[in-house]
Write a structure and sequence with these properties.
With 330 residues, this protein is mainly alpha-helical. The protein has 2 domains: 1-202, Arp2/3 complex 21 kDa subunit ARPC3 (Orthogonal Bundle); 213-322. The protein has 11 helices and 2 strands. A two-stranded antiparallel ribbon has the order 1-2. A hairpin with an 8-residue loop joins β1 (32-33) and β2 (42-43). α1 (2-29) runs antiparallel to α11 (290-329). The longest helix has 40 residues, at 290-329.
Length: 330
């Protein structure tokens, strides 16, 4: 019994992690330019699903979601992997610290304290990470001069490169990037607290696939409702995947979805390139179908467990029938 329960719990965790990873990968393409930041610094909310995963599944699951999300984005990125590495390291710090603090005492207050600590840790880590790794990599790999980077910051705030230290790049990162990273973390926290409660009762419900006996009809109805929500979420993911394929096949019709059109054009280029190996082409198609794969897993899990719940409910009523007749006879 314990083995079956453990197996179902593992499947549940993998299914939820796959769905959250697919959502994170999609959100990573929806980059929003910030008026008071240079054009190469953009906002995305792809840390949000990983934060949900850290709270519902565990801190290391959140880190895993961050890793897979960036691996999925890597073939379509334009930063030679530098941006993805930075996103993984900072996002991993954010969700790991948040999850570890929350894991000790799973209360709303601890979740708030943990996520705030995680956002602060991410903001502080962004300074040395950008200064010693990311921006030197941009200069070395992408041939983006440091003077141009500093000039982009000075175009917004002319004196930023001269205070508080004598190092222009360090000043720019301290004033702009640390503040931006902290605000980004806070925004993810606010949205997480708004949506976590409803999701925890449905898609993220830990008892969703439990094999424990269900005591009454109300509990059966609740479990069926949760499984229907899981199935509906899977269908929604499949519809999103269908949209991605529609953009891939008819980019002119979906010109308004610029990030997805760009992604499909990059994919077409890789698939049409004769120098791209067959194995890489297969991997690219798997990456492109990540949302559909997660949706298919959710639909299958939801449908199979709906049938199992219905069967166990019927068997439970049959088991109770002789006892009820005995009580009536007495």
């Amino acid at each position: 019994m314990r083995t079956r329960k453990s197996s179902h719990d593992s499947i549940r965790r993998l299914a939820i992690a796959a769905m959250l990873t697919a959502v994170a990968a999609a959100l990573q393409y929806l980059e929003i330019p910030i008026p008071l930041m240079p054009s190469f610094v953009k906002l995305d909310l792809s840390d949000l699903p990983a934060l949900l995963g850290a709270f519902s599944l565990g801190p290391w699951w959140g880190v895993l979601i961050q890793l897979v999300k960036n691996l999925l984005h890597l073939p379509f990125g334009s930063s030679a992997g530098v941006g993805e590495l930075c996103n993984f390291l900072l996002g991993g710090i954010f969700v790991l610290v948040s999850g570890l603090v929350y894991q000790r005492h799973k209360t709303r207050g601890r979740a708030l304290w943990g996520s705030a600590t995680g956002a602060a840790a991410m903001a502080l880590a962004s300074l040395p990470l950008n200064y010693f790794l990311v921006y030197p990599a941009y200069v070395a790999i992408l041939q983006f001069p440091e003077e141009a980077i500093i000039g982009a910051y000075e175009a917004i705030l002319g004196s930023v490169a001269h205070v508080p230290t004598a190092n222009p790049l360090l000043n720019c990162l301290l004033i702009f990037n640390v503040t931006f990273t902290l605000i980004k973390g806070i925004l993810n926290i606010v949205i997480c607290f708004l949506i976590y409660k409803p999701l925890s009762k449905t898609v993220l419900n830990k008892a969703l696939l439990s094999e424990d006996a269900v005591p009454d009809a109300d509990a059966y109805r609740k479990k069926r409702r949760n499984l229907w929500i899981l199935t509906a979420a899977g269908i929604l993911f499949l519809l999103v995947q269908a949209f991605l394929w529609a953009v891939y096949l008819f980019p002119q019709v979906f010109a308004f979805a610029a990030p997805f059109v760009k992604m499909s054009e990059l994919l077409k280029g890789k698939l049409a390139d004769p120098q791209t190996s067959v194995l890489l082409k297969v991997l690219l198609l798997i990456v492109f179908d990540a949302m559909g794969n997660a949706g298919a897993i959710a639909v299958v899990l939801g449908a199979v467990n709906l049938r199992r719940v219905k069967r166990r409910q019927q068997e439970g009523h049959l088991d109770d029938a002789p006892q009820n007749r005995a009580k009536t006879a007495e």
